[in-house]
């Protein structure tokens, strides 16, 4: 049973590989940059020849979501006889707002599910690793600049997403996870303002939190998004969560049999992010 883990340089992919290896498996790791990932095979979703070669004799795939290449992936995976795909999707794939239909994860889920193999979608909400982007502005300005500071999120640790993926992959095709989608959240609903306060409490780094007006946020943030619809979808999502505690999803505990890791745990696991 060969498991292909795509996106080898990604934080979640690296944790998935470590988890599978710890379980005694020898996953095939794939990356666009094989020199950065020892032992990996070339894999670029925009280059179909690398996709077909990486999929040879593969039973299961851990896949990052990319709508523009999803149809080509389905064709290659069906040709290779893949039995199961575990797709790293997002909670935004089922967001209840007018831009959600254009969400790249929703579109990827729709296309990836057309293959002959079984699919399990992992649908995490906001990643705790987003704070790495906050830290860049903090280093430059002493500020963290975000819209909707009072929006509630339940951010999730990348290790919990990887642990969930590993359990689904270990269960393999034919398990009760086939055809299921698992929303995944962290253990606690917190405003972004509270997350920033806790960065200071845990690391001692002083931070000025700046609540960006929507127009200012568009100017500062939208360039980093995959498309404008995704940015608008995120903005309306955050607006809808002001004063509204975020649901705590049971997915991590259900799949991994351990509680989801807290924001304080993430800050202690990544002291380098906010170190002065
Ligand atoms: N940030 C959030 O709050 C959040 C919430 C929910 C869902 N998500 C989703 O989670 C995913 C990963 O997020 P992240 O920030 O953790 O990413 P990341 O660590 O930067 O990793 C992304 C990975 O995608 C792979 N990749 C990119 N383009 C590729 C291509 N053309 N062909 C093959 N692989 C490609 C890369 O692998 P190589 O470089 O090794 O090729 C890269 O390692 C994204 O789909 C994102 O939308 C994010």
SSE layout:
Layout: E1 2-5, H1 11-22, E2 28-31, E3 41-42, H2 48-55, E4 58-64, H3 70-80, E5 84-88, H4 104-112, E6 118-124, H5 131-141, E7 143-147, E8 152-153, H6 158-171, E9 181-184, E10 190-191, H7 192-203, E11 208-212, H8 214-221, H9 228-240, H10 251-256, H11 263-269, H12 271-274
Parallel strand pairs: 1-2, 1-4, 2-3, 4-5, 5-6, 6-9, 7-11
Antiparallel strand pairs: 8-10
Pfam family, one: NAD_binding_10
Domain NAD(P)-binding: 7-169
InterPro entries: Ergot_Alk_Oxidoreductase (IPR051604), NAD(P)-bd_dom (IPR016040), NAD(P)-bd_dom_sf (IPR036291)
Characterize the structure shown.
The structure is a single chain. The protein is an alpha/beta fold and 276 residues long. It has one domain: NAD(P)-binding Rossmann-like Domain (Rossmann fold). 42% of the residues lie in helices and 17% in strands. A 7-stranded parallel sheet has the order 3-2-1-4-5-6-9, sandwiched between helices. Helix 3 links the parallel strand 4 and strand 5. Helix 7 packs across helix 11. It starts with a strand and ends with a helix. Bound molecules: NADP nicotinamide-adenine-dinucleotide phosphate. The site of NADP nicotinamide-adenine-dinucleotide phosphate (NAP) has 24 residues, from helix 1.
């Amino acid at each position: 049973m060969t498991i292909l883990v795509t996106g080898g340089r990604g934080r979640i992919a690296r944790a998935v590989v470590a988890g599978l290896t710890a379980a005694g498996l020898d996953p095939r790791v794939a990356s666009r940059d094989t020199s950065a990932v020892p032992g990996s095979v070339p894999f670029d979703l925009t280059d179909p020849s690398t996709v077909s070669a990486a999929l040879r004799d593969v039973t299961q795939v851990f896949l990052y979501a990319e709508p523009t290449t999803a149809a080509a992936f389905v064709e290659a995976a069906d040709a290779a006889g893949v039995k199961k795909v575990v797709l790293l999707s997002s909670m935004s794939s089922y967001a209840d707002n007018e831009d959600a239909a254009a969400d790249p994860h929703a579109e990827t889920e729709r296309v990836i599910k057309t293959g002959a193999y079984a699919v399990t979608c992992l649908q995490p909400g906001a990643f705790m690793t987003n704070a790495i982007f906050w830290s860049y502005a903090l280093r430059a300005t002493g500020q963290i600049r975000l819209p909707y500071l009072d929006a509630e999120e339940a951010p999730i640790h990348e290790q919990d997403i990887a642990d969930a993926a590993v359990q689904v992959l270990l269960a393999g095709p034919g398990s009760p996870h086939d055809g299921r989608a698992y929303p995944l959240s962290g253990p606690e609903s917190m405003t972004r303002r509270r997350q920033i306060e806790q960065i200071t409490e845990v690391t001692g780094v002083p931070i000025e939190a700046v609540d960006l007006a929507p127009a200012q946020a568009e100017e500062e943030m939208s360039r980093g998004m995959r498309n404008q619809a995704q940015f608008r979808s995120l903005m309306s999502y955050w607006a809808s969560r002001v004063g509204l505690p975020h649901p705590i999803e049971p997915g991590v505990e259900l799949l991994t049999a351990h509680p989801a890791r807290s924001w304080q745990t993430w800050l202690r696991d990544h002291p380098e992010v906010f170190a002065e």
